[in-house]
Design a protein that fits this description.
TIM Barrel, about 325 residues
């Protein structure tokens, strides 16, 4: 019997260029359990003109470094997915030599690209029509984040928005608010439910009107809001307390319904900014049945994770120390 909670479901994990040791540990676990690796994507980006979201915690522009890491990730059974989600890519940025080199290498090795800017999507497709592109969640957040604007839009406008994206993209990430309130209701009208990707552990305030501003500030070096939520500021200043009557974190029953009844095939986990050992624990609990054979492999997995951290040339020294210390002091979390 499989130890996977959900068979025939793909996972998109926030590990590339930040928690790469978890990628190799997951690959080890699957081999030790004799399990067929489910489709595993891992997303992330290094600092570049096209990057968006939370970039790598360390800066590098060494092409050889990036290429070696990507090839190791592929060997581990994962599909590297670059978060080229800067929504303000200029025409000049499209000619950036480093970004285009990574694009060339990525397409050659069957990587995928999460995109939010139309001009970047067009650039990628004009250069490589066969390139697989994913519509970033930022596209929907920028269109529907404002509660007042959303209230004035016609019913079904978000469904139409996603259907338009589905004509262009290989996968489309929907807003968690939509997946909770409307995805099941709209499922039969969605052009291809199997191309919809659902973020299942969103921690943002539901319907926060500051979502895009918050995203923008997190991407500015030196910003006081880098890698943190402004919940404490925004809730007190904008009267959002009344909107906090539900959470965007998905319960097991909700995920079960998405998979078995709605027909969703792609699930996404966030957490690039989480402590590595904590994120590892979260991923384990979402992907695996946490009993039976899973328990027998976990002591080996912990040891493997520590060995990878000590030996892996791709992990910054400060991150190695942080993870080793956390595991030593909090072994029970895994």
């Amino acid at each position: 019997m499989s130890v996977l909670k959900y068979e025939n479901v793909s996972w998109n994990l926030p590990l590339m260029f930040c928690h790469d040791e978890i990628i190799f540990t997951l690959s080890y676990i699957m081999k030790e359990l004799g399990e067929k690796m489910p489709t595993m994507y891992t997303y992330g980006s290094m600092f570049s003109k096209w990057a968006g979201g939370r970039d790598s915690s360390f800066i590098f522009f060494d092409r050889g470094f990036v290429e070696d890491l990507i090839l190791k990730i592929i060997d581990a059974g994962f599909v590297p997915t670059f978060t080229f989600t800067n929504p303000r890519v200029t025409d000049a940025d499209l000619q950036d030599e480093f970004s285009n080199h990574i694009l060339d290498f990525g397409v050659k090795n069957n990587c995928e690209f999460i995109v939010s800017a139309d001009n970047l999507y067009n650039h990628i497709k004009s250069r490589y029509p066969e390139a697989k592109c994913v519509a970033s969640i930022l596209q929907a957040k920028m269109e529907f984040h404002d509660l007042r604007k959303r209230a004035m839009q016609k019913a079904g406008s978000e469904l139409l928005f996603y259907n338009n994206l589905l004509e262009k993209f290989d996968r489309v990430v929907v807003r968690p608010e939509y997946s909770i309130s409307s995805l099941e209701k709209d499922a039969e009208q969605i052009k291809d439910i199997k191309k919809i990707e659902v973020l299942i552990n969103e921690t943002c305030i539901p319907g926060c009107p500051m979502a895009v501003a918050c995203y923008n500030s997190k991407n500015k070096l030196g910003s006081p809001y880098m890698s943190r939520c402004g919940r404490d500021i925004f809730t007190s200043n904008m009267g959002l307390e009344k909107s906090l009557n539900y959470t965007l974190m998905s319960k097991k029953e909700f995920i079960d319904n998405l998979i078995y009844n709605v027909g969703v095939k792609h699930l996404k986990i966030q957490g690039r900014h989480y402590h590595p050992a904590f994120l590892f624990s979260i991923i384990m609990q979402y992907i695996f049945k946490t009993d039976g054979g899973f328990q027998s492999i976990m002591p080996l997995a912990r040891e493997k994770l520590k060995k990878i951290i000590k030996s892996n040339e791709f992990i910054p020294l400060e991150q190695k120390y942080m993870v080793e210390t956390f595991i030593k002091d909090n072994v029970e979390i895994m």
